[in-house]
């Protein structure tokens, strides 16, 4: 059992953990091709978070010491340039320079099976921005889309990504069913970044829109139109099929509505996303009779055809 690594020096904790893992490989004279412990075991051994171990492993991968072999795990690749007493220290710049191949995971609705989906243009803008940043760096992109109905939630989807031998993954619009596969990639030492909704339980950085700013812009415009009582078209926020993403946005609007003097409570929310068209129409009539809003904000665009 290794002594836990404490965050007491100026060097980043994940860098010192990488040093300790490398020292362990050398001291045990681990040969090339040997499999190292799973990342979850390393978190216990070094007494650090999963995210710290993930960053440390990524450092060693980019130094050419470790390599990922997909679902088989992480293996020792080589210890070139590591003579007696040598202590490999690497910076975050080294980490960034090591990334060369990025897999971009598309949502199921950006596939050819959904050519007119409302989110196509938004995803295209994200991709254009990412390309403008990746091209100057010489990064090679592997575009991987989730086949209908939702391939990205199935276990084999991980292999579909790892067989491309990628260094990192940009996962666009992950949903609840994708969380386990994102974790499987992290377990395999692949750097994963999401864009869209946040999952607090995942050690994965998630880039997201500023929902507060969006709410302010909408409410400011509605207030100028003389509106006072707001209605929201949303996904389910409660029960077995409750969606934390919908609840998160609702809480944002609750807070901003108070600041702008709008009336909004849970009775003003139509939670019909994901239901059949006949069910949605019945619920919509009941909602309008109950809430009597003078303005509507649609948080899930497919509800506009209700």
Characterise this structure:
With 306 residues, the protein is an alpha/beta fold. Helix content is 39%, strand content 14%. The chain contains ten helices and ten strands. It has helices spanning 13-27, 39-46, 50-62, 92-97, 120-134, 156-162, 179-187, 211-224, 244-260, 277-291, and strands spanning 66-68, 74-76, 101-106, 140-145, 168-172, 191-195, 206-207, 230-234, 269-271, 295-298. The protein has a five-stranded parallel β-sheet. A three-stranded parallel β-sheet has the order 9-8-10, with helices on both faces. It has a two-stranded antiparallel ribbon with strand order 1-2. Strand 3 (101-106), helix 5 and strand 4 (140-145) form a beta-alpha-beta unit.
Give keywords.
alpha/beta, five-stranded parallel β-sheet, three-stranded parallel β-sheet, elongated
Overall residue-averaged pLDDT value? 79
- Give the oligomeric state of the chains in this entry, treating copies of one chain as homo and distinct chains as hetero: single chain
Order of helices and strands: HHHEEHEHEHEHEEHEHEHE
Strand order of the largest sheet: 4-3-5-6-7
Task: List the uncertain runs.
Answer: 80-97
- Outline type: elongated
Task: Give a quick summary of the entry.
This protein has helices at residues 13-27, 39-46, 50-62, 92-97, 120-134, 156-162, 179-187, 211-224, 244-260, 277-291, and strands at 66-68, 74-76, 101-106, 140-145, 168-172, 191-195, 206-207, 230-234, 269-271, 295-298. It has 306 residues and is of the alpha/beta class.
